[in-house]
Amino acid sequence: xxxxxxxxxxxxxxxxxxxxxxxxxxxxxxxxxxxxxxxxxxxxxxxxxxxxxxxxxxxxxxxxxxxxxxxxxxxxxxxxxxxxxxxxxxxxxx
Length: 94
Fold this sequence. Notes:
This protein is α+β, with helices and mostly antiparallel strands. It has 3 helices and 4 strands; from the N terminus they run αβββαβα. Strand 2 and strand 3 form a beta hairpin. The N and C termini lie far apart (29 Å).
């Protein structure tokens, strides 16, 4: 996967509630490439533009199934790149 492929793919910013323990990113690797720039904040980049998780409803359903979290435990913001690690740290979260 080239740099442009990563920068311009569907991405999701996820913020978990303070009471939620850290997510197991190994368990979530089937959903895409994950980074955790700061506590309770995650960014996932999908690995293919043909991924069914491009649809936020599908992604949210799969995310909830894997993590066993309720909708009230997290917020998701969909976007297309570029959303780099530096931007994740510098930009406001929700």
